[in-house]
Every structure is written in C-alpha cells, then in structure tokens.
Amino acid sequence: MAAAAETTFDRSRRRRRFWNTTLQASTPYGLIVPVLAVIGVILGYPLYWLIRLSTERYGLFELIQHKGASVGFDNYRSVLHDRIFWHTLLRTVVFTIANVSLTIVLGMLIALLLVRVSTVVRVLLTSGLVLVWSMPVVVAVQIFYWMTNFQNGIVNYVLTRLHVGDFFQHDWYATTFSQLSLVTVLIVWGALPFVVITLYAGLAQVPHDLVEAAEVDGARPWRVFRDITLPILRPILLILTSLSIIWDFGVFTQPFLLIGQSKITPGNFLMSVYLFEEGYFKTDYGRGAAISVLMLLMVAVLSVAYVRKMVRIGDEP
Amino acid sequence: MAATSSAATRNAKASSITVWLQVDAQSGWPDLVAAANQKFASDHPGTTVNVQYQNWGDHLQKFDATLAGGGGPDVIEMGNTEMTKYMAAGAFAALDKSSFDNSATWLKGLAASGTFAGKTYGVPYYAGSRVDTYRTDLFKQAGITKLPTTTAQYTADSKKLLAKNPKKGFSPLYIAGTDWYVAMGFVFDYGGGIATRVSGKWKGLLSSKQSIAGLTAYKAFFLANSRASKTTDETHPNPYDVYAQGQAASMIGPSWFTCCVGKKYTASTAQFVMPGHIKGQPLPGFLGGSDLAVPVTSSNKALASDWIKDFTSTAGEKGLQAKGNIPNATNLLGSSVNERAAARSWFVPTAKHWVDVENGNILRNMLAQILTGKLTIQQAASSASDNIASVLNQP
C-alpha cells in the first residue's frame, strides 16, 4: 500500500513537472503566435500572391477578367534571357557599391568630426542632419531637380560665378553617368543622417583611457582609429553597411523621379525601375512579378550577413 | 466652381458619376466642363458629376489599378494613341454611336481611334494640331515683315532675331530636344515615316533614306533655332513658361499655348502655320486628340454615356473650337490657324503596342542620341527602327 501510494504520488508529481516544463517551454512560442499571425497576414499572403502571379500570364486582358493563365516558369525564363536584365543587374551592383561606400565613408568622417567640434557646432550639425532626415523624398527630388535645372538652375549659376567653368545651360541629365551621379548625390545626402547619428552613438562607446594609453605609447591618430576605434565600431558598421546595401539595391523613388519618366530608357535602368517599366508600363504583371521574386532572392542573399550578425549580437550575454 | 462644389455636397447621398478628364480641360476650358455638368444635372436631377483631373504621365497606371481593384471612373478621357491597347483588351463598353451629336461626320482619324472590330468604344472629344506661337513685337523689331514660308527662311529669320536679342540662352524658336511630335513632323515632311504594316508584320521606317533626311534636317534646324536642352521633353519645362519668361521669340505646340504666355506678352502674341521645307506646304503636324470612353467596370454606363453626349454636343464642340481646338466633326470645321495646320498631318501607327513605344521613350532616346552626337543619325535611327518593329510585333 505504502509503496503503491508513493508511486501514485511520484507519478502525479512527475506529471505535474512534465506539464510545467512543457508549459514553460511552449510559453515563448505561445507569446509569439500573434506576431507570427500578423506577419503571416501582412507579408505571407501578398508573398503567396506575388509568387503565384509570377507563374501566370497576367496582362491588361487578364486584369480586366480578374484571372490569369498559368504558364509555369515562362516568365522567369524570359527575364533571365533578357539582355536588359543582366545589364541592369550589373549597373545596379556598381551603383549600389558606389552609393554604399560613399554613404559609409562620408558618414564615418562626419561622425568623427562631431566628436571633435564644440558643442554649439555639434548641435548645429546634428540639427542639420535631422532636418535632412525629416525631408520627404519626393520633395527632396523636386528641389534637386530645380537646383540642377537646365534653363535656370542655381547649381549652374553658382558654378559659373565661382569660375569653376562655363556651366551656363549645362545639361546635368545628358549622360547616364551624369544622371546616376545626381541620383547618387541625392541618395547619399538622404542616407547620411541615420549613418552619422548611429556611428556617433557608437563612438561614444570607445573607452577614453584606451585611446589615451595608445597616444601615450606614441600611436598616431590613424593608428588609433585603425586599431582601437574601428574594431569597437565593427558590429555597427557591418549592420549599417548591410542595411545600406539592401536599401540602395532596391531604390526606386529617387532615380525614377529625378531622371524623369521621359528620360528613362533601358540604358539607365536600375533594378526596381526595370521592374516598374516591365510590370506596370507594359502591363505585363506576370513578368513584373517574376522580376520582383528574383530581386527578392538577391536581397535575401545580401541580408544573410546582416541577419547572422543580428542573431549573434542577440546571443551575447 | 463654388456653386458646383456646394451642389455636390448637398447631393452627396444621391447617385453620382465620376469623370476623369485630363488637366488640359482644367487649365483650358473649365467653363465648358461646368456647362456640361449643368446640362447633365438638369436632365438628371439628383445625380452629381464628380470631375477628377488627371495627368498624361500616370493616368493609365491609375486606370489599370481601378480595373483591378474597382473604384474607377464612369467616363475616362483617353489619348487617341492610347485607345487601341485598351479596346483590344476589352476595357471599354461599346457605345451607341448614333446617339451622339454629329457622329455621321466625326473626324475620320479620331473616329477610327475609338473603333475596334466594328464597334464604337470611344467618342471623339477634340483634336489639336501644332502651330507656331510667336512674339509679333520681336519679329517686327528684327525687321521680319513677312512670316517665314519655309524652314530655311525660318532659320534665316532666326539669325535676325538672335542679332536683336543677344541674351545668352535666348531661343528664336523654342523646341525641346526630345519633342518627337515636332521631330517626326520633319520626318514626314521629307516623305519618311515611323513604321508600316507589310503583310501582317510591322516594319520600322525610321532608317529609310527619307526618314534620315528628315532627321538630319531636324537636327540642323534644332541647332540653329533652339537653345533648349537636347535631352529634355516638351513639358520640362513647358515651352510657354520659357516664352513667358521672355526667353523665346516663338514656340511650336498646341494652339492653346496662348493661354499661358504671360500677361506681359498676351497682346503681342499671334500664331501661324509652321512651314515645311517646301514653300507653300505646312510642316506635317501630329494630329493629337482625345476620345471619351466608358470603362466596362462602370456601374452607371447609361448615365456615363449621357454625360458624354452633353459634353460633346454641338454647343460643347463649338466651345472647344472657340478655345482654339479642332472640333470633332467635319461639319463644324472652320478656318482657324489650328484647322489650317491640320490640313497636313500625320498620326502614329495604329498598333496595339504603340503605347509601349511611347512609354518606352524609344523616339525620345533616339532624338537625344542624335542631338548630343552620342550616335550618328544613321546608327540612332536604325536601332530605334528595329526596336519599334520588335515592340509592335509582340503578340
């Protein structure tokens, strides 16, 4: 009897412990269910439709009928055999490298400057950066367009007045290089505030005594930067770079609006402009969706570094 | 306008129709729109008309979105070059042609742009040719007593205008570099063309001998007369803005350009038919025009059709004519400068995919390449010609 009673007690205790641990273990999963559900609805559902659309012939006719015709991987095949796709991809990669490098290097330099200047100058600089941040992209594009205007833009006027050269009626939109350079200026200008402020916050973490010790040992500024500041900033730099790559690779508003619809040609396409022209202007939504899926895959590959870093930072005690 | 909006609020609960017109009506003839609305309101008490003005650049994308998602217009203005693609896809409801004023004498070209497989889907709204708008005071100052009758004479007169107006950036005749409506006029003037159908397939014509001659003449004419950007289109900036700033002695464009020449120059502005290279022949002008159509997605097709009737009535068309447009029917035609210019006109290839050629900027890109000297005329024209043929021949 005693033995039996003990066994029952043991069993029930064990059962309770089992339920406790199961409950404990599943609580986190339970807690993220709402988040997963929301993500599923706002990301998963459109994604499902995007992928489905990319395997269909879906033009104006199908749009009116509200029904596409399945064509398997034809859209992908046609995109991957399109010379314009490969040229655009190459152009976009070069464009992204240029934009990201400029953003990070300039951002780093301005952040370092912020540490050195007096409080008044720092407040002025930071306010300036925040103002840039708060400017809507479309407004910024319009202002850039005015400044670089052929007929009476202020950039041409100032450059001529400063005797940089004769910029009277200089056409900033004449060549692809010039067009994309303007877009780069606009993007880097808009991206700097976030990068500078984040790096400036990171610089505050560099221990003073470490820098002083190095200086006492005779290290020059460059050496201090390379061997002390940079290693401490590395995680932040990696995240900023990854994010910039993702943003700049898929940028649309600035190139499309600044270059202007009437000057957009396959010769100056960037990926998302190509996607827009193929999908919307030619009303070939199936093909547009295929390009979109391919872009998504590329960005996913590019984000691996970012996600891994985020996970690793989360693991740190 | 105030009366219309207060009426709209009062009858917010009653049924209403939505009309998409292009901004041209908003800036050029809002009174005619209001008159049509008034007529419609008196025939259909309780039904309001909600007019929304659209831009040429993106109205088709917006329209596509409403075809998919609903909430679209009951009446839509379409450019005559845009109609074919949409009619072929079944985007519009068929209309009863005979119920519209003057439908027996509609302008042939415009009526054709609204007809598909024998049915009428688009009601001609108005047409416009391109004319030369000029400053009478500057021409007089430069000693030009007779208006030019050939392009060569125009260039000679330009030299006189330049001598009197030495300001840098001043254009005797402002033409935007990639204004293909003007450039193709030169191509047609020399007997060339854009594309033609040969046994069921489209063939590009821009690389033909005649077309090359036209493009060569355009380049020379542009360089001698216009100080506009070689890569910009005719809306960035608007030619009339350049003119209103005193930066041009003349410009080519729709006859309603007189609307916006600025108070200072209104009295000294007049128009004439742009000459071609042969004396006595106008430069062939693009016969642009608009149609009004009823989308299949409209739930008020009968009301929509009634509004179109009111807007394109004989009285409405006469109003459009008074504003410098070409009315939609031959029996209404007069002898204005616009109507005389239309005597020699050209039109784009009527192909389902023509609108893709326009949106793809194939012609603009070619003109920019030619004017900046990036490519030779032959190279740029050949590549554009092949490009156009391949777009038009898509299934």
Q: Mind telling me the CATH superfamily name of the largest domain in chain A?
A: MetI-like
Cross-sheet strand order for the largest sheet of chain A: 1-2
Amino- and carboxy-terminal Cα gap of chain B: 46 Å
The CATH H-level superfamily of the largest domain in chain B is Periplasmic binding protein-like II
Low-confidence segments of chain A, given as residue ranges, are: none
* Oligomer class: heterodimer
CATH fold name of the largest domain in chain A: MetI-like fold
Q: What characteristic shape of chain A results from the CA principal axes?
A: flat
Q: Give the name of the CATH architecture of the largest domain in chain A.
A: Orthogonal Bundle
Outline the fold blueprint:
The complex is a heterodimer of chains A (317) and B (395).
Chain A: H1 2-53, E1 56-57, H2 60-65, E2 69-70, H3 74-80, H4 83-116, H5 119-134, H6 137-147, H7 154-161, H8 176-203, H9 208-216, H10 221-249, H11 253-259, H12 271-281, H13 285-315
Antiparallel strand pairs in A: 1-2
Helix pairs in contact in A: 3-13, 4-8, 4-10, 5-8, 6-11, 8-10, 8-11, 9-10, 10-13, 12-13
Chain B: H1 2-10, E1 16-22, H2 23-28, H3 30-43, E2 48-54, H4 59-69, E3 75-79, H5 83-88, H6 108-113, E4 115-116, E5 119-120, E6 122-128, E7 130-135, H7 136-141, H8 151-164, H9 180-189, E8 195-198, E9 201-204, H10 209-225, H11 239-244, E10 250-254, H12 263-266, E11 269-272, E12 285-286, E13 288-293, H13 301-311, H14 314-322, H15 337-341, E14 345-346, H16 354-359, H17 362-372, H18 377-392
Parallel strand pairs in B: 1-2, 1-3, 12-14
Antiparallel strand pairs in B: 3-13, 4-5, 6-13, 7-10, 7-11, 8-9
Helix pairs in contact in B: 3-13, 9-10, 17-18
